[in-house]
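Board notes (copied after class):
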Amino acid sequence: MSAVEPISAADAQQQNPGPLLRIVKHQPIAFAMVGVINTAVGYIFFVLWSLILDNERLYQVAVVAAYSMSVIVAFVLHRTLVFRVHGHMMRDFIAFVGVNSGGLVLNLLLMTLAVSVLHAPPLPAQAVVMLSVAGVSFFGHRYISFRRAPAPRERSGIGRG
């Protein structure tokens, strides 16, 4: 008897592609398209929080607040349009938040470096940092957040004694 090995969401996609994958046909491209939308949404949230806080030194608070709002939007869009998985919603969401939290930590580190060390203005720095972090997160979501076990194969009866 062989162990059930996890499969990537990409393999599950081939069986039931979502609406975006029916058009685009390539998961990394679909991920990038949704990522661009979510990056724009996250950046808008960041700008709004920056305006609400009205203090350029609170850019890290604005990053965390924007992340907290955009992670929900990102989860729904990626789950339905890119990875097209069913069931295990809470497990998927926890894994998604875990992967995105790694991205958030990376974002905060890069933003701190850009703003505090390199003295870059926060708004343009965040645009560059977000694009960099989004590229890295694809693999985490593909192999962690939306991973699925393959369906059990039917036994053919060969080799039974």
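Comment from the instructor: The longest helix spans residues 89-117. Residues 5 and 129 are 35 Å apart (CA to CA).
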